[in-house]
Amino acid sequence: MKYLALFFLIGCAPRIRMEVLQPADIYVPQHVQQIAVVDRSRVSSAGEAVLGAIEAVLTGEDIGADRMGRSEAISTVTGTLAGSPRFEVVEVSIDDDSGLFADTLDWKTARRLCPPATCQGIVALEALDSDSSINHSSHRETETDSEGRERSVMVHEASRETWVLTAWRFYDVENRRVIDDLRDYDARQTWSGEGRTKDAAIADLPSQSDAVRSVSRQAGEQYARRVAPTYIWVTRTFYGRRDEALSAARPLAKVGSWDQAGTLWEPLLRSEEPELKGKALYNLALQAEVAGDLQRAAGLLEQAAELLPKGRVYRYQAVINGRLADQAALQEQLPGAQ
User: Fold this and answer.
1) Domain 239-333: which topology?
2) What pLDDT was estimated at residue 336?
3) Which CATH architecture has domain 28-130+163-191+202-228?
4) CA dist 213 → 52, 187, 188, 210 (Å)
């Protein structure tokens, strides 16, 4: 397993961020190793067929916003898939006469785009449609000027919610079957702005085009995570205060010197103070997780749970148990994954 840990402090508890491999939501057969990513969403008739409902433009959508959104979705899904250890993403030659832009992608066209010697699968953006709404409200606030005088001022607030509806398919070209057919996938984001006037508050929001691009990137990333194991950043806490050894080990964890930190935590296992021993067990479980030994981490946490307040250690146990379940899925999706 690839891992990387970074140290930072939030509140009282020292924390780290680490990169872990997350399994895909669906299984893709192992013979599919090289894939191509194509955009079929510019076909209006095909798009209408796979999206359950496409709303009319009600909000003054920028001309070309959907076109830019398609480009962002494609580039993001391509980049995220390329960063996965599961697939090799290859480029395919596309021309307007290839049949790619017909209402239905037939297997003859798919085989021409993706011959077995080049790739075995195609990820296609089948449709994309965006919409947006802007809400406005206002209220009065009291502010104090430079001379200490109070006055009432009007504050305007605006929010933009933008959503993108997409449809995706994953084609197994070799076996002529659709592995995944995801329709009506809804991704959305909300932004807020503020100003002394309504126009100023709205001007504080991102443009419709920028909003659509941002949500389209979200849609592309999430679809890639659906079909391919990908690395994600997670946060972990550990104990690094109220004891000399815990405090001394904290800067070692800060620079990623886990073995040296462990040499300071391990003697605490002989402590006659149950809480201190529990904290050492907890920290050693984190060391084990960073090293990729999830079974050892689970065993250490089981011991720590008998000595520490239940909330924090129970939450970490749930995380490790979830990762152990993920490992089973990863072994199927990516044989040899740790």
Assistant:
1) 1.25.40
2) 66
3) 3-Layer(aba) Sandwich (3.40)
4) 22, 12, 11, 5
